[in-house]
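Input chain follows. Return structure tokens only.
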Amino acid sequence: MDNYIGKHLLIDCYNCDMDAIESSETALHTLADAAEKIGMVVKDTFFHESEEEITAAAYGPKSHICIHWYPKLCYAAVDIYSFDQDLKPARTMAVLRASLHPEKIRATSVKRGNINPDMKPNIKSKSTTLHKFKNTGQQMKTAGQKVANYMRHKNEKRDTLGPE
């Protein structure tokens, strides 16, 4: 049973329109549209611009949207986090397509905050005992070769010192 309380959507926008982000006003307008589309109430915004990157973020109760634009690469990385089950981060895709005009979008959804009573991670190992044994043998072989090379090098060095 899933007891996840947070959603995290990571969106990569490739080959965006170079002129899509003309100013801080355009960036903040894109954020406002995205926040409205998912139902997020914006309490604060942040904007930073450097020669290689433009970063804009909108913060709301239990959520944020952050967009990193890299104009020279025509690439934008979007990060949408929501601790509110009512917000739907995937709805921002239409806003991003309309404002950035990317040729390709790749989205990755991550569940956050698995609040499970036992709080034990569910890990399944694919390493078998035989696989571990083979790896140990290979590591021993490699170590033996290093020792042999060291001894050979040390003997060669000693032989060049002259008669004993």
